[in-house]
Amino acid sequence: MTEIDYYEILQVSKNCDGAELKKSYRKLAMKYHPDRNPDNKEAEEKFKLVNEAYQVLSDEDKRSIYDRYGKAGLEGRGMGGFGNGANMDDIMDIFNSMFGGGFGGFGNSSRTQNSSKYPLDFEVKYTLEFHEAVFGCEKEIEISYKSACEACNGTGAKDGKLSTCQTCGGHGQVVMKQGFMTFAQTCPTCHGEGKIAQDKCTSCSGKGYETKKDKVTIKVPAGIDNGNRLRVKGHGNIAKNGQRGDLYVTFMVKDDENFIRNGNDIYIEVPIFFTQAILGERVTIPSLSGELELELKKGTADKEQFVFPNEGVADVHSGRKGRLIAQVHIIFPTSLSDEQKRMLEELQNSFGIESKPHKTIFENCFERVKDWFK
User: Fold this and answer.
1) Dihedrals φ, ψ of 262, to 5°?
2) The pTM is what?
């Protein structure tokens, strides 16, 4: 049986250099990728072969063996398992191109940007009183942050002595092949560092950092709401090179006894007696700025709303204020004296038929229902 030639699969000559090989692989991998060819078995098989060929030809040792002995010479030499060397970086580069960087959440960039064993930015939650969030305030908060261990220079190793990780060969990543797919993953042994500690630092127990406490004064702007986040620059964790991240404070706001907040609008329930609703009256209600006069018209309905523009919360970005919305809640007496009953009955009778609107509304309905049963 004739064996498929890896050079033919990648459409390159046997004397091609690494740049030409990588360029061709990039083009073919993107062309035959399963995401671009759903339910296409032929493209799936070609993608598998392209990856297999590139894993061999991009590795100088494997390529040399392949050129001399063919595919049979590679048996038992780790084909389809873990990979290292330049071909791993190339494969990751291709995946980054196709998936927008950091395929599967992994990649070289994060290790390059920060070699610490912890993220430089961190978040804390802080609870504010209702009025503190509405009007803004200044708060001193306590934080716990991480700083690189001085004894081991943030390595987690005794005396800072590290050795090259044997699993990934110092690259911080390994390449695994599952079926027709090739995945680059963070090395499980060194966790992407490329080096490991032979002995743990006794000062930090191998963590590579110490936890320190501090107090930070923050200015909370007016209008902060539940879930809003404030960035405090330069108060995050500290890397071993002295670089410091940022602190992010996420706010929770307590409820108020009378005011209910919805965005920049404030709602307040105004209880009024039923006679006030009937006769109409001017009542004084509380607001964020002090007091307001609410003019109840005659015959005010239960749950009727009265809107006061620019009496709400200032927007945390624009400063524009929302509305205060007063919603009426009519209160009826739960018990009556004999005298009160008599007076109400006299009042009701004084309205005549108007006091019994159901009779007028249902009069024709009763007649129609009777006709249904004739």
Assistant:
1) -135, 95
2) 0.60
